[in-house]
Here is the input.
Amino acid sequence: MLKRGSGADRLSSLDVSIELSISSPRVQQQYAAVSTLALLCLLPQGVIDTDIRHFALEGGIVAASVSCLLRTSLAYRTADGRLRVLAPIRDFMLLHHPPTEADASGLYKHYFSLAELLVNEKTGQSSPQAIAAVSPEVENIHSVIHYALDHLSDPRPAVQAAHGMSALFADTGVGSFGLLQHAVRTAREHALEDLVAELLYSWGRLAFISATPGSAQTLWEEARTLFAKSGNHRGTIDNPARRPGGL
Here is the structure.
């Protein structure tokens, strides 16, 4: 098994070892092996076999690629049967052989759709069924969304998925506040004002119950301004900033 040692020389040797494995004839002969590995590197929890079909490659090609990666120890099986890649290989691949947007499209769609299960506009809370479906994959979903926020040419779907995960964090404490902050930064950079408003509204809810830093009233006021600017009159009317004391 590959292990990280201390010092630049050790890390350099590890990088060389990984590159040699990727460049080996066995891997290169299976043309989709490297792209499959790159996709697996977005999933720190690994993936169950039934979810591999969501990779943007034909099923037979993925199966052959997975077999190749297992034979070359670039991937391994966990005790519960998941297909996983070691952290040093994940880091190396995402830096030097990242997945293309086209190859990752199916993966994005699958994990974004899980996050969107959590958004219930009628109740304002995630259903128990949605929480049960999403909870086992939280680390993978966060990893995919974080990566997509930085790499998608149009990050809107990733920002929307992050909004869904903020609902899980608000309802259960599962997940992290960092994803919401990342989504706000990305939405601002791409002038997605309607989504910035939604995210700030969610952030305000969390700040109101002291679950995150920030002034709920300030966050809601900015959200209200952006809702109005983007023509979302419902968001303007429902905003707690209009009510004394907030929620």
